[in-house]
Every structure is written in structure tokens, then in C-alpha cells.
């Protein structure tokens, strides 16, 4: 999970919501990925999808049986679907996602035996740390947008002052 957290920091550095994922087979790290849908102009560029694509390319197989995916945030429905298609053995996630989590928070895609026979899920691993990374990102973003609004108001107020020539 520490490697997934490091990948999440790469997302933060790119100005994206900091989520990171690592794909492991046994002791071997096969691939990692960080969330960057904005920079990639790609709604599917979640950390898990990036890691799955890279891993499948690395082993030249679209199925990744026996692999474990570590991700700092509970996967969404899209990622849960891709995880199932890849036949991932186990998903370990950090923070729960009350808005789009598909491992029990909003829906539980993996609990449906008609959909999935392959993947076990462990949630809440380093939950506080993984959640804190996301909270600090959104707090920083809110602060930056408050400052931008204040600067815009100040500029507008300055524009409305009578100029020296008019006085
Ligand atoms: Zn996702």
C-alpha cells in the first residue's frame, strides 16, 4: 500500500485527485498507476485502469489471475468491472468512497456472485492515511479557489474605483 500511496502523490503533483494503485503478483510489482483523467482527457484514466493496462501489457495477457491490486481509494464501478474482467484475485483498498465506491460504500459489485467469482476484497487498509491524502488535496483546492475568488473580487473593486484622471 505504501507504493500505491507514493503513486497517489504522483497524481497530486500532476494536479489530479491523488489516487494510486499497484498491481502485485506474489512479491513482484508488475505495474502501478496514478489517477489522471484530466491530463489524459480520459474519463477512464483512474489509477486502477492505468495499472491494469500496464500489467496486462507487461505479462501480455488480458487476464491477470493470481494478481493483487492495491489502491488507495475504493474502486468505482468502472474499475470494479475492469478488475473482474482481468480476473484479479484480490483487491486491497485504503479509503472508502461514499460517493462512487463500488466495494460496499454505494454498491457492492463484488458481492454479486452472478457478476464475480474471482475477486476477494479487503477494504480500509491504512484507511486514515489514504483518506488524509485525499482530504488535504480537496482542502488545498478549496483554499486555492477561495483565494482566486477573493483576487477576482479585489480586481473588480479596483476596476470600479474612479481613475485619477476622472477626479
Ligand atoms: Zn475507478
From TrEMBL:
CDD domains: nucleoside_deaminase
Cofactor(s) for this UniProt protein: Zn(2+)
Name this protein carries in UniProt: tRNA-specific adenosine deaminase
Annotated positions binding Zn(2+): 46, 76, 79
Catalytic residues as annotated in Swiss-Prot or TrEMBL: 48 (proton donor)
Catalytic activity: adenosine(34) in tRNA + H2O + H(+) = inosine(34) in tRNA + NH4(+)
Cofactor note (record): Binds 1 zinc ion per subunit.
Gene behind the chain: tadA
Segments forming domain CMP/dCMP-type deaminase: 1-106
Coiled-coil ranges per UniProt: none
GO annotation (BP), single: tRNA wobble adenosine to inosine editing
EC number(s) given by UniProt: 3.5.4.33
Family affiliation: Belongs to the cytidine and deoxycytidylate deaminase family. ADAT2 subfamily.
Function: Catalyzes the deamination of adenosine to inosine at the wobble position 34 of tRNA(Arg2).
InterPro entries: APOBEC/CMP_deaminase_Zn-bd, CMP_dCMP_dom, Cytidine_deaminase-like, tRNA_aden_deaminase
Entry-linked Pfam families: dCMP_cyt_deam_1 (PF00383)
Amino acid at each position: 500500500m505504501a507504493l500505491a500511496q507514493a503513486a497517489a502523490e504522483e497524481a497530486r503533483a500532476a494536479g489530479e485527485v491523488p489516487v494510486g494503485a499497484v498491481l502485485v503478483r506474489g512479491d513482484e510489482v508488475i505495474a502501478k498507476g496514478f489517477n489522471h483523467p484530466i491530463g489524459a482527457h480520459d474519463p477512464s484514466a483512474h489509477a486502477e485502469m492505468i495499472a491494469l493496462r500496464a500489467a496486462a501489457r507487461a505479462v501480455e495477457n488480458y487476464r491477470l489471475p493470481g494478481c493483487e491490486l492495491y489502491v488507495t481509494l475504493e474502486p468505482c464501478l468502472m474499475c470494479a468491472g475492469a478488475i473482474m474482467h482481468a480476473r484479479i484475485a484480490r483487491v486491497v483498498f485504503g479509503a472508502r468512497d461514499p460517493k462512487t465506491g463500488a466495494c460496499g460504500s454505494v454498491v457492492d459489485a463484488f458481492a454479486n456472485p452472478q457478476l464475480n467469482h474471482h475477486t476477494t476484497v479487503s477494504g480500509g487498509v491504512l484507511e486514515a492515511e489514504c483518506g488524509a491524502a485525499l482530504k488535504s488535496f480537496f482542502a488545498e483546492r478549496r483554499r486555492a479557489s477561495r483565494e482566486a475568488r477573493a483576487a477576482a473580487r479585489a480586481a473588480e473593486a479596483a476596476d470600479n474605483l474612479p481613475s485619477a484622471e476622472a477626479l
